[in-house]
Specification:
25% helix; 9-stranded mixed β-sheet; alpha+beta; 10 helices; 510 residues; 6-stranded mixed β-sheet; binds flavin-adenine dinucleotide; FAD/NAD(P)-binding domain; Rieske Iron-sulfur Protein; binds FE2/S2 (inorganic) cluster
């Protein structure tokens, strides 16, 4: 697909610049990460009277939140029947109420602050074209009804194809996530609260009491009695072993215009390959149809270009495609029992909180997280909090899956080390824009030739725990199949648990 990777959301807003941290600072709550979780938390906490500071490593809303599909729904694939059977009905109720309340909270914030962000109420459907999923959808429907959702079961959806079964939730919504969150961000600075960009948190010093000291790459520090880690992958682990308790999956989206009419509504398949549908009114008056799907574990997706082709093929089989305007991809983390970790990071540092593992449903889970963490910090009881407590993952509840994930990591660690790479001798034969793992002078290296013809060679050993990286041809990055760290073609850390860049390798035979 011959268009650059860029999300419609990022392309259709102007980002104001926020200053870098330029001195030591003391606040009530330090919030690390400027995605939906961090920005909403800071907004709500400032409203509750706290002095807050958001620290964003690069630019706010450029992470997963800038690349979402932005359905605001409590319908999260098949989830309620799973929580109901693996945990209990009370836990399913807490999850349902937290996420439905998040939709209401977003609507209230928009109305109270007159935010123009293309918010609209929409029904959400989960559908199947595979009869093996009918029973699961029936279960999900029955559980949803018990939990109080306005849900219905049918054998058709408004999209122009036949389905075997579908569950519809009413009172769901969609919006332009960045128009909404940039508005929230604009309320944060002032009256003792701050929003800093280009300020990466490096470490949290827990013995610096009273309060926690966060060191940053600016050389300055922030001190606060409460810290929220909203960095997507928790940059500070606090012995919580988060890298082994969450796994990343990438997913893809294309934005197209069509000559026929999109019927409205938001849709997702129950089965694989996953497909997600919604539309969005663009500022030029045209309607953008967004088709998502093709998820796979990070670093395990093979030729990543193919995923966009597959989405386009689905689009062409469904609508008269006029133009493909956008394509983008991003990743999100899933926990072992599919319920996010929201709450205290560990048992020894009571003022440090985390919110992660939204399983591609962070518009509501991220908003719910902000509401739950606000209550923790205020000392208020929150009735949804128990299901999300990070320390819940114990042998019994999810030990099987926990072991499976770690076996998967170990398998990749060993397999990728043993896999032979193509030998490169003399001049490295790569086209402009091409990247590959090669054996250079007896060692595995990652080589990429940029569009100007310059060769970039890196050590493909992940700086987190040593797995071998894969080349991502669609996003021009080196991706780790173990815990989802990603690096630019010249080795800089983009996301995930890795903190150090890849080693750069000099090669005279360019
Ligand atoms: C393809 C796809 C489609 C999706 N569609 C939907 C959808 O339709 N509906 C829905 O509800 N959810 C959806 N999601 C999920 C949702 O987008 C995410 O769960 C959510 O955006 C995560 O937000 P976040 O704030 O936790 O993380 P992010 O948005 O990634 O923000 C984290 C921020 O922390 C910063 N950071 C990291 N480390 C540091 C550090 N050390 N110091 C300072 N800052 C740091 C990063 O730069 C980043 O800006 C989708 C996800 C994917 C992958
Ligand atoms: S992210 Fe853990 S080894 Fe690469």
């Amino acid at each position: 697909m011959n268009i650059p990777s860029q999300s419609y959301w990022m392309a259709s807003v102007d980002f104001p610049e926020y200053e870098q941290l330029s001195g030591n600072l003391d606040v009530d709550v330090a919030i690390i990460g400027g995605g939906i979780t961090g920005i909403t938390s800071a907004f709500l906490l400032k409203q509750s009277g706290f002095k807050t500071a958001v620290l964003e490593a690069s630019r706010i809303l450029h992470g997963t939140t800038g690349h979402t599909t932005a359905k605001i729904t409590a319908q999260h694939d098949i989830i309620y029947s799973i929580i109901n059977s693996k945990m209990d009905e009370e836990s399913a109720k807490q999850y349902a109420e937290a996420n439905q309340a998040a939709i209401q909270a977003i609507d209230t914030i928009i109305q109270q602050n007159n935010i123009d962000c293309d918010f609209s109420w929409q029904p959400a459907y989960i559908y199947t074209q595979d009869e093996n999923y009918i029973l699961q959808l029936q279960n999900e429907y029955e559980t949803a009804l018990k939990l109080g959702f306005s849900a219905s079961f049918s054998e058709e959806v408004p999209l122009p194809f036949k389905v075997k079964a579908a569950v519809r939730f009413d009172n769901q919504a969609q919006f332009h996530p960045l128009k909404y969150l940039l508005a929230l961000a604009s309320f944060i600075p002032g009256n003792g609260s701050y929003l800093f960009e280009n300020t990466k948190a490096i470490d949290i010093h827990t013995k610096s009491g009273p309060g926690y000291e966060i060191s940053t790459d600016t050389g300055f520090r922030i001190k606060a009695p409460n810290v929220i880690i909203a960095t997507h992958y928790p940059f500070y682990d606090g012995d919580g072993m988060y890298f082994a308790r969450i796994y990343p999956e990438r997913s893809y989206a294309i934005g197209i215009t069509i000559t026929d009419t999109y019927p409205g509504g938001m849709y997702i398949t129950a089965e694989n390959p996953g497909r997600s549908w919604r539309s969005h009114p663009m500022d030029n008056g045209e309607e953008l149809v967004i088709i998502g799907g093709e998820h796979h574990k990070t670093g395990q997706g093979g030729d990543t270009q193919i995923h966009y082709q597959n989405l386009l093929e689905t689009a062409r089989n469904t609508f008269q495609v006029k133009e493909v305007l956008y394509r983008w991809s991003t990743q999100d983390y899933t926990t072992m029992d599919q319920v996010p970790y929201i709450g205290p990071l560990n048992s020894k540092d009571p003022g440090i909180y985390v919110a992660t593992g939204f399983r591609k449903w962070g518009m509501t889970n991220g908003t719910a997280a902000a509401m739950i963490l606000r209550d923790y910090i205020l000392g208020n009881e929150n009735e949804w909090a128990p299901v999300f407590i990070p320390s819940r993952v114990k042998p019994g509840a999810s030990a099987g899956k926990f072991v499976t994930e770690n076996v998967d990591v170990a398998k990749h660690l060993i397999k990728s080390k043993l896999k032979p790479a193509e030998k490169a001798e003399g001049k490295i034969e790569l086209q402009a824009g091409e990247g590959k793992v090669l054996e250079i002078e007896g060692k595995k290296r990652g080589a990429y030739r940029d569009m100007q013809g310059q060769l970039h060679i890196v050590d493909t050993t992940c700086t987190h725990m040593g797995c071998e990286l894969s080349w991502n041809s669609a996003e021009l990055s080196w991706d780790c199949p173990c815990h989802g760290s990603r690096f630019t073609y010249d080795g800089k850390v983009m996301e995930g648990p890795a903190q150090k860049p890849l080693g750069k390798i000099e090669n005279k035979n360019v």
